[in-house]
């Protein structure tokens, strides 16, 4: 089993570094180009299961990458719910909460670190029941928690696993143990 983990392509709020969870933004023109570059990058790959977050930025990435057929919407792939921090930059949040990090403090009025971790673990349990290769279209912070959880670490370690828009990461099993085979590959974006 290999799990291809794709972070959605660029949105306007990515450009301004605003935390985006429940705000349903479309891709920018550049984001559409990034998603189409994913199509080239993943050309010829066959997936037994295709899952996308319900947010349009993830769905548009999936569609433009050429995987809309058999796509299943999976609520557990939604971004970490930022609650009161929705639409704010890290600097704006730090004005009221110096030293704040989503991975250490969670989101006031949204999901705690434990909430995000439990959701990731629940989704991993679902994945482990499946056979064949899988592709997931999700979001930056939640995908980082998913990656950390996959290899048996807690959500806090997701802070060290940065992800770029439209990046490709691959999770799998090596010698009967969960492993990260590739993380944050953006080589396909050199012309976007």
Note the main attributes of this structure.
alpha/beta, about 190 residues, 6 strands, about 35% helix, six-stranded mixed beta sheet, Rossmann fold
Please render the helix and strand layout as text.
Layout: E1 2-7, H1 12-15, H2 29-41, E2 49-52, H3 56-64, E3 71-73, H4 90-96, H5 102-105, H6 113-128, E4 134-138, H7 140-150, E5 168-174, E6 177-185
Parallel strand pairs: 1-4, 2-3, 2-4
Antiparallel strand pairs: 1-5, 5-6
The name of the CATH topology is Rossmann fold
Give me the side-by-side strand order of the main sheet: 3-2-4-1-5-6
- At CATH level 2, the architecture is 3-Layer(aba) Sandwich
Beta-strand portion reads: 15-25%
Describe the structure.
By secondary structure, the protein is of the alpha/beta class. The protein has one domain: Phosphoglycerate mutase-like (Rossmann fold, 3-Layer(aba) Sandwich). Helix content is 33%, strand content 18%. It has a six-stranded mixed beta sheet with strand order 3-2-4-1-5-6. Helix 2 crosses helix 3 and helix 6 crosses helix 7. The chain is globular and about 50 Å long.
């Amino acid at each position: 089993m290999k799990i291809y983990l794709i972070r959605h392509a660029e949105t306007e709020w990515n450009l301004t570094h605003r935390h985006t969870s429940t705000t349903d933004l479309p891709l920018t023109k550049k984001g559409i180009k990034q998603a189409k570059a994913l199509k080239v990058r993943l050309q010829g790959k066959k997936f037994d299961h295709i899952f996308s977050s319900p947010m349009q930025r993830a769905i548009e990435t999936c569609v433009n990458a050429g995987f809309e057929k058999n796509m299943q919407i999976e609520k557990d792939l939604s971004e970490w719910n930022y609650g009161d921090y929705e639409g704010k930059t890290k600097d704006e949040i730090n004005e009221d909460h110096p030293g704040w990090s989503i991975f250490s403090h969670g989101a006031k009025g949204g999901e705690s670190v434990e909430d995000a971790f439990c959701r990731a673990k629940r989704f991993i349990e679902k994945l482990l029941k499946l056979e064949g290769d899988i592709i997931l279209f999700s979001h930056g912070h939640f995908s980082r928690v998913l990656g950390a959880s996959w290899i048996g670490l807690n959500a806090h370690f997701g802070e060290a696993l940065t992800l770029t828009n439209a990046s490709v990461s691959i999770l799998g099993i090596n010698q009967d143990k969960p492993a990260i085979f590739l993380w944050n590959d953006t080589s396909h974006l050199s012309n976007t």
